[in-house]
Design brief:
The complex is a heterodimer. By secondary structure, chain A is α/β, with parallel strands linked by helices. Chain A folds into two domains: 6-199, 3-Layer(aba) Sandwich (Rossmann fold); 220-337, TPP-binding domain (Rossmann fold), CATH 3.40.50.1220. Helix content of chain A is 27%, strand content 30%. Chain A contains nine helices and 18 strands. In chain A, the strands form four sheets. Chain A has a seven-stranded parallel sheet, sandwiched between helices. The radius of gyration of chain A is 22 Å and the shape is globular. The N and C termini of chain A lie far apart (67 Å). In chain A, 56% of the residues are buried. In chain B, helix 2 (71-80) crosses helix 5. The longest helix of chain B is centred in the N-terminal third of the chain and has 17 residues, at 40-56. Chain B has a single domain, classed as HUPs (Rossmann fold, 3-Layer(aba) Sandwich). In chain B, strand 7 and strand 8 (158-165) form a beta hairpin. Chain B has eight helices and 13 strands. Classes of the chains: A alpha/beta, B alpha/beta. The interface between A and B is large, with 91 and 80 residues. Strand 18 (316-319) of chain A pairs parallel with strand 13 of chain B.
Chain lengths: 338, 296
């Protein structure tokens, strides 16, 4: 009997708080595993985090590889890489996925380099398919699909020969599945071994602040671009956003112009979002921006330039000056609310 | 105590300014139509290395891997203060993915000899992968500090670095040697120095001699030009795979585990699209429709 193919997901956590992207990936891994007749393993590293293992199973894992050790309390590249590399070499997973977070983007290339495995960054879609190359046919490979060249093209990458097939996946692009509390799985404890070379980096301190906005979780986003014209102009965007119970987004151009903080940036170099409603105001629709919002349910574009490419993407178009149109929308919505 | 730095840089197409002309009919990118620039975050990495040199002494060596044209970014590095620049160029490395590139760069960094710090930009704007830095660190057996924003202290063989993330900062202490990937909030890269531009404007690789002869016919022959450059230390060092002892099975298309299966152009388009007038009536009609469809 051949060994069942393993699809691994790195479960990123900070003091027991599992990153949403890891749960999103478990759902995707479940789908890939069902397609490949394989199993999903969650790789859970940290300290005093055993209670999270159930959650990982509820989100789709068949097995949790749990490394609980004081050296793993706060994320550090070397101890985490040591545990992951040793496990990869021992169990030879077929696919290994991580969130494209600062942690995932620090850790994944380190593991890939040690294992000489192919790695694709920032995927926005994953599929299973075949690949023909120089007369060989490789079946059931992971198609790692990502925007490239500033979002101007979409590339499909495969790793025909090396295992695991590694990919980091952007936050928010895979849908998080509802946990199934009846799911049962196995928890396998691993005992990591560290040596002095794994301890050469120490964390002296960490200051994290709460996000000022939650674009990824928002169901309505009102976003502004260069057409907003100023910092003050974003007050109008915010007014509409808050009235609709949504968040404020922005294009890179608006962020670069200093109208608004980078945290609000949507696009290839910002956040990827998929709200129910996306209202793009004064955004021309550069490909790099569209790459981060084209999965939105309904897109409304307000722009004074009839040739703005955002109009090609929009379900609803208003050709006009946003400074006039937004107040009209605000009063129209107030009218319906009465 | 002096610290020697190696800075890994990349020449990239200016993807931030892609215009209509740069896209081909089939939706692929016409690289030739894009200006080639010094990868922005690599300039911040170079600046960090130059400041270490100014405060503590030591040498700054800049390495780039790419086609002969990449010598342009090496001259820019010289204009800004690099002591030594090296072009790693070999047809057999063409098509290398991040892993194969990191292996070739690892061989080159080792060949430079004594180094305390390796600097890279956080990521390059053509691929946005941020993979090569950590992959090189692993191959060199060095600790890595990604998202580096500031060196808070450098003393003996210890470095304290502040890392910057979208939602906060972290301070870490590492032993040397180590590798840093630098973010764009780290510093304001210095502009090229006029004095150094005059000093290094002739710095060249042999493939550039014909162009130089056209501009400066008084040199008459490539040999005379080369002798002139050699005397003034203006010959940019070029290394091929053999010079750094690479195993050719691990570089180039063949040595790259990732393969591009296909490239699609980005096709944007809503299935159905409806226009509303920019007026109170139009705004009202749009809101009505959104409410009726349970979108609002």
């Amino acid at each position: 009997m051949t060994k069942q193919r393993e699809i691994w997901v790195f479960i990123e956590q900070d003091r027991g708080n599992v990153a949403p992207v890891s749960l999103e990936l478990l759902g995707k891994a479940r789908e890939l595993a069902d397609r490949l007749d394989g199993k999903v393993c969650g790789l859970l590293l940290g300290h005093e985090i055993a209670s999270e293992a159930e959650r990982v199973i509820h989100h789709g894992a068949d097995e949790v590889l749990l490394a609980d050790h004081a050296e793993l309390a706060a994320y550090r590249t070397l101890p985490y890489a040591r545990v992951a590399i040793d496990l990869v070499q021992e169990r030879k997973p077929y696919i290994f996925l991580m969130g494209a977070t600062p942690v995932g983007r620090d850790l994944a290339p380190r593991i890939a380099s040690a294992c000489w495995a192919g790695l694709t960054a920032d995927c926005t879609s994953l599929q299973i398919g075949d690949f023909e190359h120089k007369g060989n046919v490789y079946e059931d490979l992971l198609y790692q699909i990502r925007p490239a060249f500033g979002g101007n093209i979409i590339a499909t990458i495969v790793n025909p020969e090396t295992r695991p097939q590694m990919a980091t996946v952007r936050e928010g692009v895979m849908k998080m599945e509802q946990p199934d509390e009846a799911r049962r799985g196995k928890v396998t404890k691993v005992s990591p071994q560290f040596d002095a070379s794994d301890r050469v980096v120490q964390v002296l301190g960490r200051e994290m602040r709460l996000p000022c906005c939650d674009l990824k979780g928002a169901s309505v986003i009102v976003a502004g671009g260069m057409g907003v014209g100023s910092k003050e102009g974003f007050d109008l965007i915010a007014e509409l956003a808050h009235m609709l119970g949504g968040e404020v987004g922005a294009s890179r151009a608006a962020v670069d112009a200093g109208f608004i903080e980078k945290e609000h940036q949507v696009g290839q170099t910002g956040v990827t979002v998929r709200p129910r409603l996306y209202i793009a105001c004064g955004i021309s629709g550069a490909v790099q921006h569209c790459a981060g919002m084209d999965q939105s349910g309904t897109i409304v574009a307000i722009n004074s330039d009839p040739h703005a490419s955002i109009f090609q993407l929009a379900h609803y178009r208003i050709l006009g000056n946003l400074h006039e149109v937004i107040p009209q929308l605000i009063s129209a919505y107030r009218g319906t609310a009465k | 105590m002096a610290y020697n730095s190696v800075v890994l840089v990349k020449q990239v197409p200016d993807t931030a300014n892609i215009t209509g002309q740069a896209m081909k009919e089939d939706g692929t990118v016409n690289r030739a139509a894009l200006p080639a620039i010094f990868n922005p975050e690599d300039l911040h990495a170079l600046e960090m290395a130059l400041r270490v040199k100014e405060q503590h002494g030591g040498q700054v060596t800049v390495i780039t891997m790419g086609p002969p044209r990449a010598a342009e970014v090496l001259r820019e590095a010289l204009y800004r203060g690099a002591d030594r620049v090296i072009l790693l160029t070999d047809r057999k490395t063409a098509g290398s993915d991040t892993l194969a590139t990191s292996y070739a760069l690892k061989c080159a960094v080792e060949k430079t000899g004594d180094y305390d710090l390796v600097f890279c930009g956080r990521q390059a704007i053509d691929g946005d992968t941020a993979q090569v830095g950590p992959q090189v660190a692993e191959k060199l057996g060095l600790p890595q500090i990604t998202y580096a924003e500031a060196i808070e202290s450098l003393e003996g063989d210890a470095i304290v670095v502040r890392r910057a993330f979208p939602l906060g900062t972290e301070r870490v202490k590492s032993t040397l040697p180590c590798l840093l990937t630098v973010v764009d909030s780290a510093n304001e890269p210095r502009p090229p120095s006029v004095r150094r531009m005059i000093a290094y404007k002739l710095a060249a690789i042999p493939q550039e001699y014909p162009d130089l002869l056209e501009k400066w016919p008084e040199f008459k022959t490539e040999e005379k030009l080369e002798a002139y450059l050699a005397e003034r230390d203006l010959k940019i060092t070029t290394w091929g795979g053999e010079d750094i002892g690479v195993d050719y099975d691990k570089v180039g298309l063949g040595g790259s585990p990732t393969k591009v299966l296909k490239i699609d152009s980005v096709m944007l388009g809503a299935e159905e699209s409806k226009e509303f007038e920019a007026s109170e009536a139009g705004a009202s009609a749009l809101v009505q429709e959104l409410v009726q469809d349970y979108i609002l």
